[in-house]
Amino acid sequence: MKVSEEPVTAFLRGSYRLLILALLEHSRMHGYQILKLVERITGHKPKISTFYSILNEMERRGLLSSYIEEDKRIYGLTEKGRHSLNEFRSRVGDGAVRIIDIILKPRPL
């Protein structure tokens, strides 16, 4: 987290990669479609430059693949991306749900 970054912004930025993997799990989409879905799901609009940097970084790391169709870059999940998403789900999934539950419904531990 950047020193000056608000916790909400840091949380959202940190979740974009996993959210992108999950959104591409069942269908390919162009970048703007992914951006609009992320915005609709989170209620926050990512900075376009940051968002496309994340897509490019994920493709460089082999988590996504892309091709151009009708002047749009279409993104899809690679096997490495699918494995990464499934690994998160199996290793962290329940813990992530508990963390979100605690954040959203404060109560004594």
Automatic annotation (TrEMBL):
Gene3D superfamilies in the record: Winged helix-like DNA-binding domain superfamily/Winged helix DNA-binding domain
Q: Which domain of life is it from?
A: Archaea
Indicate the segments forming the Transcription regulator PadR N-terminal domain, all copies: 20-86
The UniProt entry, under PANTHER family, shows: TRANSCRIPTIONAL REGULATOR YQJI
Q: What is this protein called?
A: Transcriptional regulator, PadR-like family
Originating species: Korarchaeum cryptofilum (strain OPF8)
